Automatic annotation (TrEMBL):
Cited InterPro entries: Aldolase_TIM, OxRdtase_FMN_N, YqjM-like
Keyword check for Secreted: no
Superkingdom of origin organism: Bacteria
Reported cofactor(s): FMN
Species: Arthrobacter ginkgonis
Protein name: NADPH dehydrogenase NamA
Gene3D superfamilies: Aldolase class I
Length: 345
């Protein structure tokens, strides 16, 4: 399964390996992409990944986690994104772009914003509370950034609704004490995310997939519960999402669950009954064997691989060797990188 093709809308992947979004803190201070980032993503495409997902890309300058994040809040950012897209495409992989706003987790001279003036953790800055009009403007920022991503040629877009960033802060009661239509009931707390999904869906061509990364549970009182996540999955499908990727936690600094190979895969189970959408899993999926098992028996269609691909851009080639599979490589000659007991010629 790991090396079988997969189609989502108009996007055809050569295998089920997705490079999980990982922020590298390498952009220019105005959000522009650097040469190093183009090479970073190109290297994973050369290594045989089917879908290269970018790191968080900010929809607003104040939505950056740091001053070294990539931005897409203006048309001027499009050519840089296009360079990543072209590099990945030149290596026969597809590219997705992760849209995000850091919310109260932004560490910027201009401070941070959030649904409510509650800091992320002890020692974190107290965010300014967004007005209702600010929230509506941010929905438009997401939509406009997605439209720019489309113009830059990305194959799909992912909304980051997890890990304690802005959308997650709206979803979790502990970070959202609002009294307007964006706070209170789960329906209200989900409104920001669902409005973003609807707006982006309308801004993208029909066949261009929209993925959502969200928390299957936060494992903490006042966080997103498994029941919330199941209901969210249903609403996300109705709002026009095409694919759900399930992660967990980080609405606060501490993660209270155990961490072991594939530890987040179980969170897919509670959601499955509520949606017909395909799903993906992430989290310590570092071996080909585990990836294969999850694809066959874990109810998922794509595996998201993070740190294993940071350690080794050629992870897919090694996985294929472990499984005795011939991977489809952009440079087929890489397959001749055999070991010392075979002759290299
Ligand atoms: C250095 C680093 C940066 C990360 N940046 C992002 C990010 O930009 N967006 C995101 O959704 N997750 C981010 N993550 C989380 C990963 O995408 C992934 O969910 C997590 O590392 C678990 O997968 P793994 O065990 O395969 O690494 C980051 C993780 C690491 C290690």
């Amino acid at each position: 399964m790991l090396f079988s093709p997969y189609t989502l809308g108009d996007m055809e992947l050569k295998n089920r390996i997705v490079m999980s979004p990982m922020l590298m803190y390498q952009a220019e201070s105005d959000g522009h992409v650097t040469e190093r980032q183009v090479l970073h993503y190109g290297a994973r495409a050369l290594g045989g990944v089917g879908l290269v997902m970018t790191e968080v890309i900010a929809v607003h300058p104040q939505g950056r986690i740091s001053e070294s994040d990539i931005g897409l809040w203006s048309d001027e950012h499009i050519p840089g994104i296009r360079r990543i897209v072209d590099a990945v495409h030149a290596c026969e992989a597809k590219v997705g772009l992760q849209l995000a706003h850091a919310g109260r987790k932004a560490v910027l001279p201009e401070g941070c914003v959030a649904p409510s003036a509650i800091p992320h953790s002890e020692g974190s800055a107290t965010p300014s509370e967004l007005t209702t009009e600010d929230v509506r403007a941010l929905v438009r920022d997401y939509r406009d950034a997605a439209a720019r991503a489309d113009r830059a040629g990305v194959d799909c877009v992912q909304i980051h609704a997890a890990h304690g960033y802005l959308i997650h802060e709206f979803l979790a009661p502990m970070s959202n004490r609002r009294t307007d239509e964006y706070g209170g009931t789960l329906e209200n707390r989900a409104r920001f995310l669902l409005e973003i999904v609807r707006e982006i869906r309308a801004a993208l061509p029909t066949g261009k997939p929209l993925l959502v990364r969200f928390s299957g549970t936060d494992l903490i009182d006042g966080g997103v519960t498994a029941e919330d996540a199941a209901q969210l999955a249903k609403w996300l499908e109705q709002a026009g999402a095409d694919f759900l990727e399930i992660t967990s936690g980080n609405i606060t600094k501490e993660y209270s669950g155990d961490v072991y190979p594939g530890y987040q895969a179980k969170f897919v189970d509670g959601i499955r009954s509520q949606t017909t959408l395909p799903m993906g899993s992430v989290g310590s999926i570092h071996s080909a064997d585990l990836a294969e098992y999850l694809l066959r028996d874990g109810g998922i269609d794509l595996v998201f691989i993070g740190r294993a691909l940071l350690r080794d851009p050629f992870w897919p080639i090694h996985a294929a060797a472990d499984m005795g599979v011939e991977p489809q490589l952009p440079i087929p000659t890489y397959a001749r990188a055999t070991g010392p007991y075979q002759r290299g010629f």
